[in-house]
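Dear support,

I submitted the protein below through the web form. The confirmation email said the job was done, but the results page showed an empty box. After a refresh the structure appeared. I'm attaching both so you can tell me whether what I see now is the final result or a partial one.
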Amino acid sequence: MKKIALAVHGGAGTIAKEQMTPVREKAYREALERALRNGHAVLSEGGEALEAVEAAVRVLEDSPLFNAGRGSVFNADGQHEMDASLMRGSDLAAGAVAGVQNVKNPVTLAKRVMLNSGHVLISGNGAFEFAHKQKIPLEDDQYFFDEFRYQQWKAAAGTDQVLLDHSDPERKFGTVGAVALDEHGHLAAATSTGGMTNKKWQRIGDSPLIGAGTYANDATCAVSCTGNGESFIRAVAAHDVHALMAYKGLELAEAVRIVVHEKLPPLDGDGGLIALDNRGNIVLDFNCSGMYRGRVGADGEFHTAIFK
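What the results page shows now:
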Protein backbone atom coordinates (compact mmCIF):
# COMPACT_ATOMS: atom_id res chain seq x y z
CA MET A 1 0.00 0.00 0.00
CA LYS A 2 1.29 3.48 -0.90
CA LYS A 3 2.64 5.54 2.00
CA ILE A 4 0.54 8.64 1.44
CA ALA A 5 -1.26 10.83 3.97
CA LEU A 6 -3.23 14.04 4.14
CA ALA A 7 -4.82 16.20 6.84
CA VAL A 8 -6.94 19.35 6.68
CA HIS A 9 -8.31 21.94 9.09
CA GLY A 10 -11.02 24.57 8.89
CA GLY A 11 -10.21 26.67 11.94
CA ALA A 12 -10.01 26.28 15.72
CA GLY A 13 -11.49 28.12 18.68
CA THR A 14 -14.33 28.34 21.17
CA ILE A 15 -16.75 25.92 19.57
CA ALA A 16 -19.69 25.09 21.86
CA LYS A 17 -21.18 21.63 21.43
CA GLU A 18 -24.62 22.80 22.53
CA GLN A 19 -24.72 25.35 19.69
CA MET A 20 -23.67 22.87 17.01
CA THR A 21 -26.85 21.54 15.41
CA PRO A 22 -26.75 18.17 13.63
CA VAL A 23 -27.41 19.90 10.30
CA ARG A 24 -24.55 22.35 10.79
CA GLU A 25 -22.16 19.66 11.97
CA LYS A 26 -23.04 17.52 8.94
CA ALA A 27 -22.31 20.47 6.60
CA TYR A 28 -18.89 21.06 8.16
CA ARG A 29 -17.94 17.40 8.12
CA GLU A 30 -19.03 17.00 4.50
CA ALA A 31 -16.96 20.01 3.44
CA LEU A 32 -13.90 18.69 5.29
CA GLU A 33 -14.33 15.27 3.68
CA ARG A 34 -14.67 16.81 0.20
CA ALA A 35 -11.37 18.58 0.78
CA LEU A 36 -9.76 15.34 1.94
CA ARG A 37 -11.08 13.41 -1.06
CA ASN A 38 -9.84 16.02 -3.54
CA GLY A 39 -6.38 16.07 -2.05
CA HIS A 40 -6.25 12.31 -1.59
CA ALA A 41 -7.22 11.76 -5.23
CA VAL A 42 -4.09 13.67 -6.27
CA LEU A 43 -1.89 11.56 -3.99
CA SER A 44 -3.53 8.29 -5.05
CA GLU A 45 -2.69 9.00 -8.67
CA GLY A 46 0.98 9.57 -7.85
CA GLY A 47 0.69 13.35 -7.67
CA GLU A 48 2.90 15.64 -5.62
CA ALA A 49 2.16 16.70 -2.06
CA LEU A 50 2.17 20.35 -3.19
CA GLU A 51 -0.62 19.69 -5.69
CA ALA A 52 -2.58 17.76 -3.05
CA VAL A 53 -2.56 20.55 -0.45
CA GLU A 54 -3.58 23.08 -3.09
CA ALA A 55 -6.47 20.86 -4.22
CA ALA A 56 -7.67 20.34 -0.65
CA VAL A 57 -7.46 24.01 0.34
CA ARG A 58 -9.25 25.14 -2.82
CA VAL A 59 -12.31 23.12 -1.76
CA LEU A 60 -12.36 24.89 1.61
CA GLU A 61 -11.80 28.30 -0.03
CA ASP A 62 -14.80 27.64 -2.29
CA SER A 63 -17.06 26.90 0.70
CA PRO A 64 -18.80 29.81 2.47
CA LEU A 65 -18.56 27.83 5.71
CA PHE A 66 -14.92 28.78 6.26
CA ASN A 67 -13.06 32.07 6.63
CA ALA A 68 -11.00 31.78 3.44
CA GLY A 69 -11.73 32.52 -0.20
CA ARG A 70 -15.49 32.80 -0.68
CA GLY A 71 -16.27 32.76 3.06
CA SER A 72 -13.79 35.49 3.99
CA VAL A 73 -14.76 38.05 6.62
CA PHE A 74 -15.16 41.82 6.09
CA ASN A 75 -12.38 44.22 7.11
CA ALA A 76 -12.96 47.66 8.70
CA ASP A 77 -13.67 49.15 5.27
CA GLY A 78 -16.25 46.48 4.44
CA GLN A 79 -13.93 44.72 2.01
CA HIS A 80 -12.26 41.32 1.85
CA GLU A 81 -8.49 40.99 2.26
CA MET A 82 -7.20 37.45 1.96
CA ASP A 83 -3.90 35.79 2.82
CA ALA A 84 -2.46 32.41 1.82
CA SER A 85 0.80 30.50 1.66
CA LEU A 86 2.19 27.11 0.76
CA MET A 87 5.55 25.39 1.08
CA ARG A 88 7.24 22.38 -0.51
CA GLY A 89 9.33 20.23 1.79
CA SER A 90 11.71 18.80 -0.81
CA ASP A 91 13.52 22.08 -1.53
CA LEU A 92 11.95 24.53 0.95
CA ALA A 93 10.38 26.46 -1.92
CA ALA A 94 7.49 28.66 -0.76
CA GLY A 95 4.99 31.19 -2.04
CA ALA A 96 2.57 33.52 -0.27
CA VAL A 97 0.17 36.41 -0.79
CA ALA A 98 -1.24 38.91 1.70
CA GLY A 99 -4.07 41.42 1.56
CA VAL A 100 -5.34 40.26 -1.82
CA GLN A 101 -8.83 41.09 -3.08
CA ASN A 102 -11.15 39.46 -5.61
CA VAL A 103 -8.95 36.39 -6.09
CA LYS A 104 -11.14 33.28 -6.12
CA ASN A 105 -8.45 30.94 -4.76
CA PRO A 106 -5.62 32.72 -2.94
CA VAL A 107 -3.78 29.41 -2.38
CA THR A 108 -3.39 29.00 -6.15
CA LEU A 109 -2.05 32.54 -6.44
CA ALA A 110 0.45 31.72 -3.66
CA LYS A 111 1.63 28.71 -5.66
CA ARG A 112 2.14 30.89 -8.75
CA VAL A 113 4.19 33.28 -6.63
CA MET A 114 6.39 30.35 -5.66
CA LEU A 115 6.75 29.05 -9.21
CA ASN A 116 6.75 32.16 -11.36
CA SER A 117 7.65 35.33 -9.47
CA GLY A 118 11.13 34.85 -8.04
CA HIS A 119 9.71 35.99 -4.68
CA VAL A 120 8.19 34.32 -1.62
CA LEU A 121 5.61 36.90 -0.43
CA ILE A 122 3.79 39.61 -2.37
CA SER A 123 0.87 41.73 -1.20
CA GLY A 124 -1.98 44.11 -1.95
CA ASN A 125 -2.23 45.76 -5.36
CA GLY A 126 1.00 44.11 -6.50
CA ALA A 127 -0.42 40.68 -5.77
CA PHE A 128 -3.61 41.57 -7.65
CA GLU A 129 -1.58 42.77 -10.63
CA PHE A 130 0.42 39.53 -10.56
CA ALA A 131 -2.83 37.50 -10.40
CA HIS A 132 -4.11 39.31 -13.47
CA LYS A 133 -0.85 38.68 -15.31
CA GLN A 134 -0.97 34.98 -14.38
CA LYS A 135 -4.62 34.74 -15.53
CA ILE A 136 -5.71 33.57 -12.06
CA PRO A 137 -9.54 33.41 -11.82
CA LEU A 138 -11.01 36.55 -10.25
CA GLU A 139 -14.48 37.20 -8.85
CA ASP A 140 -16.42 40.40 -8.15
CA ASP A 141 -17.31 41.55 -4.64
CA GLN A 142 -20.74 39.92 -4.81
CA TYR A 143 -19.15 36.45 -4.99
CA PHE A 144 -17.56 37.03 -1.58
CA PHE A 145 -20.67 38.56 0.03
CA ASP A 146 -22.29 36.50 2.77
CA GLU A 147 -25.21 37.89 4.80
CA PHE A 148 -23.99 36.44 8.08
CA ARG A 149 -20.51 37.76 7.42
CA TYR A 150 -22.00 41.18 6.69
CA GLN A 151 -24.03 41.27 9.90
CA GLN A 152 -20.97 40.10 11.83
CA TRP A 153 -19.03 43.07 10.45
CA LYS A 154 -21.90 45.55 11.01
CA ALA A 155 -21.91 44.63 14.70
CA ALA A 156 -18.25 45.64 14.99
CA ALA A 157 -18.08 48.42 12.37
CA GLY A 158 -17.05 51.84 13.63
CA THR A 159 -15.38 50.40 16.74
CA ASP A 160 -11.87 49.24 17.54
CA GLN A 161 -13.15 45.70 18.05
CA VAL A 162 -11.69 42.94 15.90
CA LEU A 163 -13.17 39.47 15.93
CA LEU A 164 -11.60 36.10 15.41
CA ASP A 165 -14.29 34.16 13.63
CA HIS A 166 -14.35 31.44 16.22
CA SER A 167 -15.04 34.00 18.98
CA ASP A 168 -18.56 34.50 17.63
CA PRO A 169 -20.99 32.67 19.95
CA GLU A 170 -23.33 31.52 17.21
CA ARG A 171 -21.36 30.39 14.19
CA LYS A 172 -17.79 29.23 13.79
CA PHE A 173 -15.52 29.92 10.88
CA GLY A 174 -11.76 29.98 10.54
CA THR A 175 -8.51 29.74 8.71
CA VAL A 176 -8.15 26.65 6.50
CA GLY A 177 -5.13 24.51 5.77
CA ALA A 178 -3.74 21.18 4.60
CA VAL A 179 -0.60 19.05 4.97
CA ALA A 180 0.33 16.12 2.73
CA LEU A 181 2.87 13.33 2.22
CA ASP A 182 3.16 11.89 -1.29
CA GLU A 183 4.38 8.46 -2.45
CA HIS A 184 7.80 9.92 -3.24
CA GLY A 185 8.29 10.83 0.43
CA HIS A 186 7.83 14.56 -0.10
CA LEU A 187 5.87 16.84 2.25
CA ALA A 188 3.93 20.06 1.66
CA ALA A 189 1.75 22.45 3.65
CA ALA A 190 -0.74 25.20 2.75
CA THR A 191 -2.80 27.73 4.72
CA SER A 192 -5.44 30.28 3.65
CA THR A 193 -7.55 32.86 5.52
CA GLY A 194 -9.72 35.94 5.35
CA GLY A 195 -8.20 37.20 8.60
CA MET A 196 -10.13 39.01 11.34
CA THR A 197 -13.53 40.70 11.10
CA ASN A 198 -13.16 44.51 11.18
CA LYS A 199 -9.35 44.35 10.89
CA LYS A 200 -7.67 47.71 10.16
CA TRP A 201 -4.48 49.00 8.56
CA GLN A 202 -4.17 45.97 6.25
CA ARG A 203 -3.37 43.74 9.23
CA ILE A 204 -1.67 40.47 8.29
CA GLY A 205 -1.69 37.38 10.49
CA ASP A 206 0.37 34.21 10.57
CA SER A 207 -1.24 32.40 7.62
CA PRO A 208 0.92 33.89 4.82
CA LEU A 209 4.10 33.91 6.92
CA ILE A 210 6.41 30.98 6.27
CA GLY A 211 7.54 29.56 9.60
CA ALA A 212 4.68 31.12 11.55
CA GLY A 213 1.49 29.69 10.05
CA THR A 214 2.93 27.33 7.42
CA TYR A 215 6.07 25.20 7.19
CA ALA A 216 7.24 22.03 5.42
CA ASN A 217 10.58 20.23 5.39
CA ASP A 218 11.07 16.69 4.10
CA ALA A 219 13.58 16.05 6.90
CA THR A 220 10.87 16.39 9.54
CA CYS A 221 7.28 17.53 9.03
CA ALA A 222 4.65 19.71 7.39
CA VAL A 223 2.55 22.08 9.52
CA SER A 224 -0.47 24.36 9.04
CA CYS A 225 -1.68 26.52 11.94
CA THR A 226 -4.97 28.16 12.95
CA GLY A 227 -5.81 30.48 15.80
CA ASN A 228 -4.75 33.85 17.20
CA GLY A 229 -2.34 34.89 14.43
CA GLU A 230 -0.36 37.44 16.41
CA SER A 231 0.58 34.77 18.96
CA PHE A 232 1.53 32.22 16.30
CA ILE A 233 3.79 34.82 14.66
CA ARG A 234 5.57 35.57 17.94
CA ALA A 235 5.99 31.85 18.64
CA VAL A 236 7.11 31.08 15.06
CA ALA A 237 4.83 28.14 15.73
CA ALA A 238 5.00 26.09 12.53
CA HIS A 239 8.80 26.20 12.31
CA ASP A 240 9.11 25.45 16.02
CA VAL A 241 7.53 22.03 15.51
CA HIS A 242 10.18 21.31 12.87
CA ALA A 243 12.95 22.68 15.11
CA LEU A 244 12.00 20.48 18.06
CA MET A 245 12.16 17.45 15.78
CA ALA A 246 15.34 18.47 13.92
CA TYR A 247 17.40 19.74 16.84
CA LYS A 248 16.05 17.82 19.83
CA GLY A 249 15.14 14.62 18.01
CA LEU A 250 11.55 14.62 19.28
CA GLU A 251 8.76 12.62 17.69
CA LEU A 252 6.04 14.61 15.92
CA ALA A 253 3.39 14.19 18.62
CA GLU A 254 5.67 15.45 21.39
CA ALA A 255 6.92 18.39 19.32
CA VAL A 256 3.35 19.44 18.56
CA ARG A 257 2.30 19.01 22.21
CA ILE A 258 5.07 21.34 23.40
CA VAL A 259 4.21 24.06 20.88
CA VAL A 260 0.42 23.89 21.29
CA HIS A 261 0.17 23.34 25.03
CA GLU A 262 3.36 24.89 26.47
CA LYS A 263 4.69 27.58 24.13
CA LEU A 264 1.51 29.16 22.74
CA PRO A 265 -0.70 29.56 25.86
CA PRO A 266 1.60 32.08 27.63
CA LEU A 267 1.35 34.22 24.47
CA ASP A 268 -2.48 34.04 24.45
CA GLY A 269 -2.07 31.60 21.60
CA ASP A 270 -5.50 30.00 21.46
CA GLY A 271 -5.80 27.64 18.51
CA GLY A 272 -4.19 24.57 17.08
CA LEU A 273 -2.35 23.03 14.18
CA ILE A 274 -2.24 20.02 11.92
CA ALA A 275 1.06 18.26 11.30
CA LEU A 276 2.37 15.31 9.35
CA ASP A 277 5.83 13.75 9.47
CA ASN A 278 7.88 12.04 6.76
CA ARG A 279 6.73 8.60 7.94
CA GLY A 280 3.05 9.40 7.55
CA ASN A 281 2.23 10.05 11.21
CA ILE A 282 -0.57 12.60 11.57
CA VAL A 283 -1.15 14.85 14.60
CA LEU A 284 -4.15 17.21 14.90
CA ASP A 285 -3.88 19.12 18.19
CA PHE A 286 -5.44 22.25 19.74
CA ASN A 287 -5.67 24.04 23.09
CA CYS A 288 -9.25 25.29 22.77
CA SER A 289 -12.66 23.62 22.71
CA GLY A 290 -12.64 22.56 19.08
CA MET A 291 -10.96 22.47 15.69
CA TYR A 292 -12.57 21.56 12.38
CA ARG A 293 -10.29 18.82 11.10
CA GLY A 294 -9.94 15.70 8.98
CA ARG A 295 -7.33 13.14 8.01
CA VAL A 296 -6.68 10.18 5.76
CA GLY A 297 -3.68 7.88 6.05
CA ALA A 298 -2.23 4.95 4.15
CA ASP A 299 -5.34 2.86 4.92
CA GLY A 300 -7.48 5.22 2.84
CA GLU A 301 -10.02 5.74 5.64
CA PHE A 302 -11.46 9.27 5.90
CA HIS A 303 -11.96 10.74 9.38
CA THR A 304 -13.43 14.13 10.33
CA ALA A 305 -13.97 15.72 13.75
CA ILE A 306 -14.78 19.02 15.42
CA PHE A 307 -14.56 18.59 19.20
CA LYS A 308 -11.99 16.97 21.49
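Response: this is the final, complete result; the empty box was a page-load delay. Residues 166-173 have pLDDT under 50 and may be disordered.
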